[in-house]
Design goal:
This protein is mainly beta. The protein has 1 helix and 26 strands.
């Protein structure tokens, strides 16, 4: 099949359409869900990264395809696998490198694989015993945990949380006797140090997952959204990092019950996405409900969390969410438990 014919064949035609009315003010409008055709079983969705210059992609039928907007719908273009490899020796086997820009840390990854914590919710019983980073100057930095802790995570996240032009690292740090906590690391005095952390959940085999990092309240500084215990009645929490005179701390901004952005055994940690759902110019969060059969749209405004919409799904969400931008606004690309690939957009 020629290149032009193949590209044309890979344009994802709408197989079915549902109208889902958002439980929100009229200006939020209804959402349209399109079932998209695939050439082979869907294996994985890579959400991409603006900071790393990575476009969303998916693996289906043993081949990688770039995901892009085609008018009001979505197209797949044959491509290559995302560059996620950890080139350094001793990296986490299933981990990837977080990439960013700026004056401070520009790459981060997990290392020193260990089996000292046998929770195993991320597909195996191998966790990380160290966090590694590279600065813009090329310097290698390492933070090694004590024997009572692991990083129960796959890939760290880079974000400038305090507005100083240098990225901090957002990680999931687990106490083997007290469960997971949200932790922030950064380069200070030429070393990679823990700057702040929430309290551990309180018992072993209890985990949390990061749902998104963005300026959710419009104050110019990002917040970190997490789902605490996503497997057993998940609670959504928003946290802000504050650097007061050099002493970092995490401040909880709000909490809501009834969410899940992960299921046991899955390596997909991005079952949520950040986008402007209501057109007010401020980021919102789309995160599944506890059954993963609906996306709840959540906003942080004037210090309060509120659900501004609900998008019912035809089957539970199982794949990472990819976000592409079409002429009519954001399009969410989701993989479901029944094998379907869908695109969600405003009508």
């Amino acid at each position: 099949m020629g290149g032009g014919t193949a590209a044309l064949a890979l344009i994802l035609a709408m197989a079915a359409s549902w109208l889902v009315v958002v439980a929100a003010p009229a200006h939020a409008g209804p959402w349209r869900i399109e079932a998209l055709a695939l050439e082979g079983p869907l294996t994985r969705i890579h959400p991409g990264s603006d900071a790393a210059g990575q476009k969303p992609a998916l693996l289906a039928g043993g081949r990688w395809f770039a995901i892009s907007a085609c008018g009001e719908s979505v197209c797949l273009v044959p491509g290559t696998a995302p560059d996620e490899r950890i080139s350094a020796a001793g990296g986490l086997p299933d981990g990837a490198v977080a990439r960013g820009t700026g004056l401070g840390v520009v790459r981060a990854w997990y290392g020193q694989p260990t089996r000292r914590y046998r929770h195993g919710v991320l597909g195996d019983d191998i966790e990380a015993g160290a966090l590694a980073a590279a600065s813009a100057s090329g310097k290698r930095l390492d933070h090694i945990l004590g024997s009572g802790y692991v990083f129960e995570d796959i890939t760290p996240r880079l974000a400038d949380l305090d507005g100083d032009g240098k990225a901090e690292i957002v990680a999931i740090r687990t106490d083997v006797t007290a469960g997971a906590s949200l932790a922030v690391y950064g380069e200070r005095g030429g070393k990679l140090r823990r700057l702040a952390a929430t309290a551990a959940i309180g018992r072993p085999n209890r985990w949390l997952n990061v749902a998104g990092i963005a300026d959710f309240d419009g104050d110019g500084r990002p917040e970190i959204a997490i789902v605490k215990t996503p497997h057993i009645g998940g609670k959504l929490e928003f946290w802000s990092y504050r650097n007061d005179g050099g002493a970092g701390r995490l401040v909880r901004r709000g909490t809501m019950a009834g969410f899940s952005n992960h299921f046991i055994g899955s390596r997909n940690l991005s079952l949520s996405t950040v986008f402007d759902a209501d057109g007010d110019g401020i980021a919102d969060l789309a995160v599944p409900d506890t059954a993963r059969t609906a996306l709840r749209l959540v906003s942080l405004r004037e210090g309060k969390l509120s659900q501004t919409g609900l998008i019912a799904l035809p089957s539970p969400l199982t794949q990472n969410i990819a976000l592409v931008r079409g002429p009519g606004g954001p399009i969410l690309v989701c993989g479901l438990a029944n094998g379907a690939l869908i695109a969600i957009s405003k009508r």
